[in-house]
Write a structure and sequence with these properties.
The complex is a heterodimer of chains A (266) and B (309).
Chain A (H helix, E strand, L loop, with lengths): L2 E12 L2 E12 L3 E5 L6 H8 L7 E6 L2 E2 L5 H10 E4 L11 H6 L8 H5 L5 H13 L15 H14 L4 E5 L7 H17 L3 E5 L3 H7 L2 E6 L2 E6 L6 H8 L22
Parallel strand pairs in A: 3-8, 3-9, 6-7, 7-8
Antiparallel strand pairs in A: 1-2, 1-4, 4-5, 9-10
Helix pairs in contact in A: 5-6, 6-7
Chain B lengths: L1 H4 L8 H36 L5 E5 L5 E5 H16 L8 H8 L3 H30 L10 H16 L2 H12 L3 H25 L4 H8 L4 H34 L9 H9 L3 H35 L1
Antiparallel strand pairs in B: 1-2
Classes of the chains: A alpha/beta (266), B mainly alpha (309).
């Protein structure tokens, strides 16, 4: 398989601290990759770098052989459209209705005036409704996004990402603010996008069992660097202790940090 | 348990805490004392500068002139002025007396309409200008420091110059008439509203903007989708408040020839038509009360809508 997304010695400094420290990683089309690591390990910055919400201090991001790091203006906005992003806090516009929130996924292809007038074509509305239908949210389409539960809002965010027709989907702690039931629905949604639509998924997770249950490949970060890169079975207790720096802890119980209501087996 | 019940030996850290507490308290008392002393000095200096302690010559009722402190000497004159403006209203000729009091009502109603229209149009101009400039003038939204600096200074200039001064300038440019008033109040309102709106913009939740940016949105998309829906209730509320203020402003701006009821104030004062002044005051007072009441109702509905989301 060709390597589609490639990061080469990618770094990002915030003042003295080095959030991402010369990370090199290549991700092939159709993979479901989980990124784990403790808080402050640089997971979020890594995802924001790929989407270019944060500019790298040094290093190269390339996609299908094209250099992403140098993109500007319209080309950069089109890259952000191709590389959809989901956030921990959903980042929806709470005072707009659900349908418009999903249609925000289409604005990269709009001109100034149709965008300012919030004018979308019938085809685009149909796309948005189909995306909402996948997550059973059509009845809520005309409600304000702020009136929905957290789990519903996150699924709206995924629908919005879907209408972008992305090639990659990035998810930054998508289930960290959700209860176990909704976390399962959201993770299943991401899995279906990965399996049925063939979209590469790169997801930050802070719960190990979720990563084990859903991800083809797990990448662990520690102090801004890649510390582990492999499949779930290779993630032994010793490796986990090193990732989270909990050497002092006698026994490490994954169930304590779990947000899964049901044990998921694939 | 023994550590808690045994009071004879205070627990560690308490004496240190007591000295620190006493030091902090005496420091805050000292700051307070110095602050109030400074305030008193400034206050009395400015009252002295403002002639509050002036002794002046006053004409007594019998015609003689005497030296008196200005405040007790002046207060009776306030009553004198007000009593001059009060019209004679008798119960048996009430209708005729009212007609005499409001003898110029046709002109006044026309000018009142002009006053309200000046306020309306000036508010509209102020909303458009203030709204568009409030985004580059918000620290968290501005595209860059230069644009931020220029819009901020422009808004400051627009609002620090009072409406009456802008009116004088515009009367000079465009001659006497309501257009000068509209431009004067509109410009001042742009500065005032732009400042208020930009402060609303600075208090928004920034996360939706990230969501729009991550979908490939431009700066304008981020403002349109991420900011405007969040700030709209506040903007409507501030706009209605500004309309009330502008009605008051447009009722005096005619004093320098910029349209509205103000010109009648000037005429009445120079011809010493004291009862006309009270009639004009009643007209403006009633108008302002009605507009305040209406816009307050509207504002509360808008805020109520905001609270529901």
């Amino acid at each position: 398989m060709p390597s589609t997304l490639a990061l080469t010695s990618l770094s990002r400094h915030f003042g003295e601290t080095c959030a991402v420290d010369s990370v090199s990683l290549s991700i092939e089309t159709g993979q479901f990759v989980g990124v784990i690591g403790r808080s402050g390990a640089g997971k979020s910055t890594l995802l924001r770098l790929i989407n270019r919400l944060v500019d790298p201090s040094s290093g190269i991001i390339s996609f299908e052989g094209r250099d992403i790091t140098a993109l500007k203006g319209k080309a950069l906005r089109e890259w952000r459209r191709d590389c959809a992003m989901i956030f921990q806090q959903f980042n929806l516009v709470e005072r707009l209705d659900v349908l418009t929130n999903v249609l925000i996924g289409r604005i990269a292809d709009h001109g100034f005036f149709s965008s300012m007038a919030m004018h979308f074509s019938d085809e685009e509305r149909a796309m948005a409704i189909q995306a909402l239908d996948r997550f059973g949210l059509v009845p809520q389409a005309l409600q304000r996004a702020g009136t929905l539960s957290g789990g519903q809002q996150q699924r709206v965010a995924i629908a919005k990402a879907l209408v972008q027709n992305p090639k990659i989907m990035l998810a930054d702690e998508p289930i960290a603010s959700l209860d176990p039931m909704n976390a399962t629905l959201v993770m299943d949604g991401l899995k279906s996008i990965n399996k049925d639509d063939g979209i590469t998924v790169l997801v930050n997770l802070h719960t190990l069992d979720t990563a084990r249950a859903y991800c083809d490949r797990i990448v662990a970060m520690r102090d801004g660097q890649i510390f582990f890169d492999g499949i779930a079975a290779q993630l032994t207790d010793d490796v986990v202790r090193d990732i989270y720096g909990i050497a002092g802890l006698e026994s490490f119980n994954e169930a304590v940090t779990s947000t899964q209501k049901f044990a998921v087996s694939i | 348990m023994s550590a808690i019940t045994n009071f004879s030996a205070p627990p560690q850290g308490i004496p240190e805490y007591e000295t620190e507490f006493a030091a902090a308290r005496s420091k805050s008392r000292r700051a307070w004392l110095i602050g109030s002393a400074l305030f008193m000095v400034l206050f009395f200096f400015s009252t002295w500068l403002g002639d509050f302690f002036k002794i002046t010559q006053v004409t007594m009722p019998d015609g003689s002139r005497e030296w008196r402190w200005i405040i007790p000497a002046g207060i009776p004159r306030l009553g004198e002025y007000i009593s001059k403006t009060i019209p004679v209203l008798r119960w048996d000729t009430f209708g005729a007396d009212m007609a005499e009091w409001f003898w110029r009502w046709k002109t006044w109603m026309k000018l009142l309409l002009e006053t309200v229209l000046i306020a309306f149009m000036a508010t509209s101009l102020g909303v458009v200008g203030g709204f568009l400039l409030s985004f580059p003038a918000a620290r968290n939204l501005t595209p860059n420091k230069t644009v931020y600096w220029i819009t901020r200074r422009y808004l400051e200039l627009a609002r620090t110059v009072p409406e009456l001064v802008w009116a004088l300038i515009f009367v000079f440019c465009f001659s006497v008439g309501p257009m000068a008033g509209v431009l004067a109040i509109g410009l001042h309102a742009t500065g005032a509203l732009g400042k208020l709106y930009s402060e609303v913009n600075e208090n928004i939740d920034m996360r939706p903007l990230d969501g729009v940016k991550a979908a490939g949105g431009t700066w304008f998309d981020r403002i349109r989708y991420g900011v405007v829906p969040q700030v709209l209730p506040n903007i409507i509320s501030y706009t209605l408040l500004r309309f009330e203020i502008n009605v008051r402003a447009s009722s005096i701006i005619g004093y320098v020839g910029a349209g509205g009821l103000g010109q009648e104030f000037r005429t009445a004062m120079s011809f010493q038509e004291y009862t006309d002044l009270s009639a004009l005051f009643v007209i403006i007072f009633v108008t302002v009360v009605i507009i305040d009441y209406g816009s307050e109702k509207l504002r509360h509905r808008v805020i109520g809508l905001g609270a529901k989301s």
